[in-house]
């Protein structure tokens, strides 16, 4: 069975939390060969948007309300499990997150820290680059902003 969910940290089951953290570690630490503090303390204040299929997390991001990472609301830890890429899940994920931010949290400005190679992808959702390219954990990033 496949379904989308968005939950606050305290609403996640232990199995959901474990599956989310496993996928985040697999993508951001192992696949990208980037040892960094994946557990940064922001999950408690975040909403977790994910698609589960047959007990696996196949797409995920976290929605950070204003004041958690930036003065503005934010989206982070965006991932699609490797063998599910190229199926449009990232677009669905972003659309759902933006709709949630605008309709449920009534946010009009969203700031993200994007890997530089994804600037065109995020640009297609209305995000604009607001910084020079910089290295974060040895990966080129840019800051981007979307205003409603």
TrEMBL record:
Classification via Gene3D superfamilies: 3.40.630.30
Record domain N-acetyltransferase: where: 7-148
Signal peptide feature range: none
Keywords annotated in UniProt: Transferase
A GO molecular-function annotation: acyltransferase activity, transferring groups other than amino-acyl groups
CDD domains in alphabetical order: NAT_SF
Protein name, entry field: Protein ElaA
Xref: InterPro entries: Acyl_CoA_acyltransferase, GNAT_dom
Source organism superkingdom: Bacteria
Lineage start: Bacteria, Bacillati, Bacillota, Bacilli, Bacillales
């Amino acid at each position: 069975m496949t379904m989308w969910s968005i939950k606050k940290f305290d609403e996640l089951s232990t199995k959901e939390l474990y599956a989310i953290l496993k996928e985040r570690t697999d993508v951001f630490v192992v696949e990208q060969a980037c040892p960094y503090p994946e557990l940064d303390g922001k999950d408690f204040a975040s909403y977790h948007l994910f698609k589960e299929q047959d007990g696996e997390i196949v797409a995920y991001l976290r929605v950070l309300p204003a004041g958690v990472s930036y003065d503005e609301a934010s989206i982070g830890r965006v991932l699609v499990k490797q063998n599910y890429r190229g199926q449009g899940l990232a677009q669905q994920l972003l659309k759902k997150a933006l709709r949630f931010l605008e309709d449920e949290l009534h946010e009009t400005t969203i700031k993200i820290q994007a890997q530089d190679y994804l600037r065109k992808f995020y640009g297609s959702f209305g995000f604009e680059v607001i910084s020079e390219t910089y290295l974060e954990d040895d990966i080129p990033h840019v800051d981007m902003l979307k205003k409603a």
